[in-house]
Amino acid sequence: MARMQNRFNISIAEVDFNDNLRMAQIGAAVVSNDHAHVDRTISTIVKVIDSEPEMIITDYRVEIL
């Protein structure tokens, strides 16, 4: 999470399954006034996580406020 936070300048935290060593639910926030920048950043974050062999994305959701 620290690498992602530093690389993408995002807020990120484990938000569920805190006591489970094999599973985590991660929440991340990207703040920008440029919608395209937010889309690119989120897409890149998902690709980076998905490329890690020890991680499996089972679901993700994007909310724009």
Mean pLDDT: 89
First-residue to last-residue Cα separation: 23 Å
Q: How many H/I helical runs?
A: 2
Helix content: 25-40%
Q: What structural class do you assign from the helix and strand content? A: alpha+beta
User: Describe the biggest sheet?
Assistant: 2 strands, antiparallel
How much beta, percentage-wise? 15-25%
Topology, number of strands: 2
Order of helices and strands: HEEH
C-alpha-based Rg, rounded: 12 Å
Number of domains: 1
In order across it, which strands form the biggest sheet? 1-2
* Overall form: globular
Instruction: Extract low-pLDDT stretches.
Output: none
Question: What do these coordinates show?
Answer:
The structure is a single chain. The two termini are 23 Å apart. This protein has one domain (2-51). It has 65 residues and is an alpha+beta fold. It has a two-stranded antiparallel ribbon with strand order 1-2. It contains 2 helices and 2 strands. It has helices at 2-8, 35-51, and strands at 11-16, 25-29. The model has no long low-confidence stretch (mean pLDDT 89).
